[in-house]
Amino acid sequence: MDYSPALMTDMYEYTMLDATLRDGTANRKCVFEVYTRHLPEGRRYGVTAGTGRILDALERFHLDDEDLKFLSDRKVVSPETIKWLENYRFSGSIKGYREGEMFFPNSPVLQVEGTFGECTLLETLVLSILNYDSAVASAASRMVSAAKDRPCMDMGGRRTNEWAAVAAARAAVIGGFKGTANLLAAQMYGLKAIGTAAHCFTLVHDSERDAFASQIAALGRNTTLLVDTYNIEEAVKTAVEVAGPELGGIRIDSGDLASLAQRVRNQLDALGATNTKITVTNDLDEYALAALQTAPVDSYGVGTMLVTGSGAPTCAMVYKLTERESADGTMQPVAKKSKDKASIPGRKLAYRSYEYNLADCEHVISGSEDELAAYEPKEGWKDLLVDYVDHGQIDSRYQGHDAIMAAHEYRARALAELPITAQSLMKGEPVIPTETTVL
């Protein structure tokens, strides 16, 4: 489907643009900030994901003649605004947390700087990407911790919207997963693709033996056979008879997975298939994975709970104006004072401090551009912000396959720097506090 990311937005972004172009405030310099006021209930940390997708979308964030005609015909904006939009390209700057970085309440995950007109159009797209991708990456990270050293694979494509499935596959890898069943995600981002056969493949054959023989003939002895269509014990016996002890793996998709894995492991060993791996699937989440830690399982396929954020499908991130140019040309910090929704004024710096090589605090520093330029963090503090876009120029290092793999590795290191309670599945407060200083 050919579409413009510039229309993946709420109508009021364009009506605000139209009104501010009329009154002259659209050209005021502004700083917008993306942050969350709180983590999902009981979660200890979040994982940043989606920024690379924002950069991909930014490259295509403009309107063609058909898009402009739609806005005009619907009278969403005035003819003067249509004229302004004809040449729209984001010319501002964006900085924020790198993908794979941990975030906490009030962490300035992304800061967008430019004119009000060009920045306000990005709000809905930025939030839709960051909220979903970070939710999936955060859930994936918890699952990977619960799985210990056993690889997790994304199998959630059939449990969500078709485009969300592609985004989820990418975010899952950032969160620590090793591959995906989604071929479009594998193609777009160079991810490892996995998959063999479903129960219908067994059912369409005259016997389970015929199905196994067909799969092995097509995919080789190293394939993974699904053994719970009828009777697992008989299926494992048949699988080894057909493939020999060189059978690559078997998959179990139902029942008491721990006890079944134990019985199947003993059966495989008794049949001489000591190197055959066991994969389990079936509505797994981080708690189910933790319960399987002592079972002889080699890998996991995770679906529904991954693509729904394991009960937290959004990070409740918001996009708020924190600084704007006043009528006299000076930059002025601004903030909401709404009950339970107050924001912190000013542009931000973000650091993390450590004691004995473990993170102990997130430090958010707010102030004017000059004040922040002169700010000296304490020794040993880690700067959490990277530059993604500089006056319209996108840093391509944060796009594509290599960026995803770098984020995958970075998440593991960043998590290891947090107190070990971050990996607890017990509900609790964020594992480190966030301290905000207004200069």
TrEMBL record:
Domain Nicotinate/nicotinamide phosphoribosyltransferase residue range list: 152-337
Keywords: Glycosyltransferase, Ligase, Phosphoprotein, Pyridine nucleotide biosynthesis, Transferase
Database matches in InterPro entries: Aldolase_TIM, N/Namide_PRibTrfase, NAPRTase_N, Nic_PRibTrfase-Fam, Nic_PRibTrfase_pncB, Nicotinate_pribotase-like_C
Catalytic activity, reaction form: 5-phospho-alpha-D-ribose 1-diphosphate + nicotinate + ATP + H2O = nicotinate beta-D-ribonucleotide + ADP + phosphate + diphosphate
Pfam families referenced in this protein's UniProt entry, alphabetically: NAPRTase (PF04095), NAPRTase_N (PF17767)
Annotated Gene Ontology cellular component terms: cytosol
Pathway the protein acts in: Cofactor biosynthesis; NAD(+) biosynthesis; nicotinate D-ribonucleotide from nicotinate: step 1/1
Gene3D superfamilies for this protein: Aldolase class I (3.20.20.70), nicotinate phosphoribosyltransferase (3.20.140.10)
PTM: Transiently phosphorylated on a His residue during the reaction cycle. Phosphorylation strongly increases the affinity for substrates and increases the rate of nicotinate D-ribonucleotide production. Dephosphorylation regenerates the low-affinity form of the enzyme, leading to product release.
Transferase recorded as keyword: yes
Gene Ontology molecular-function annotations: glycosyltransferase activity; nicotinate phosphoribosyltransferase activity
GO biological process, any: NAD+ biosynthetic process via the salvage pathway
EC number of this enzyme: 6.3.4.21
Annotated PANTHER family: NICOTINATE PHOSPHORIBOSYLTRANSFERASE, NICOTINATE PHOSPHORIBOSYLTRANSFERASE PNCB1
Chain's role: Catalyzes the first step in the biosynthesis of NAD from nicotinic acid, the ATP-dependent synthesis of beta-nicotinate D-ribonucleotide from nicotinate and 5-phospho-D-ribose 1-phosphate.
Family per record: Belongs to the NAPRTase family.
Name under which the protein is recorded: Nicotinate phosphoribosyltransferase
Species name: Bifidobacterium aerophilum
Lineage per the UniProt record: Bacteria, Bacillati, Actinomycetota, Actinomycetes, Bifidobacteriales
